């Protein structure tokens, strides 16, 4: 059977193994394509604009990981389930502005920094989509 480990001592001929590998690769490709279709703007070669919830979710996840904090820790601090926070971080749930502020407060990330980082990521993604390469931007503080 495809996807199952052969029984110990069982011999599988090359043709059967090759067919199983092709089927497994095709299934993986279909799953990847289906996941990309469900999440706009996430593929490496995506030309679709990314959603704001995806960008903010990535920033919040990056910040949480940079602080070596768990989903459970931050979710408990905010008063939400870790499943919901995970969905927000993956851009699958649209968090309210109050919820974003609560997560930012828990991470000690000022809301204006979340917004500024979001704008920079949107601009970088737009540059990549229109020119085909990442632009370099110099900013004076």
Explain what the structure shows.
The chain is mainly alpha-helical. It folds into 2 domains: 1-38; 52-128, lambda repressor-like DNA-binding domains (434 Repressor (Amino-terminal Domain)), CATH 1.10.260.40. 62% of the residues lie in helices and 0% in strands. It is built from 6 helices and no strands. Helix 2 (52-66) packs across helix 6 (111-131) and helix 3 packs across helix 4 (82-89). Residues 1-7, 39-45 and 136-141 have low confidence and may be disordered.
Brief summary of the model shown:
The protein has about 140 residues and is mainly alpha-helical. Helices cover about 60% and strands about 0% of the residues.
SSE inventory with pairings:
Layout lengths: L13 H25 L13 H15 L4 H8 L3 H8 L7 H11 L3 H21 L10
Distance between the termini: 61 Å
CATH architectural group of the largest domain: Orthogonal Bundle
Q: Output the number of helix runs.
A: 6
Radius of gyration: 21 Å
Shape: extended
Strand tally is 0
The name of the CATH topology of the largest domain is 434 Repressor (Amino-terminal Domain)
Oligomeric nature of the chains: single chain
Strand content: under 5%
Low-confidence segments, ≥5 residues, pLDDT <50?
1-7, 39-45, 136-141
Percent helix, as a range, is 55-70%
What's the CATH class label of the largest domain? Mainly Alpha
Structural class, please? mainly alpha
- Overall residue-averaged pLDDT value: 76
Instruction: Quickly count the domains.
Output: 2
CATH superfamily of the largest domain: lambda repressor-like DNA-binding domains
Main pleated-sheet profile: none
H/E element string? Answer: HHHHHH
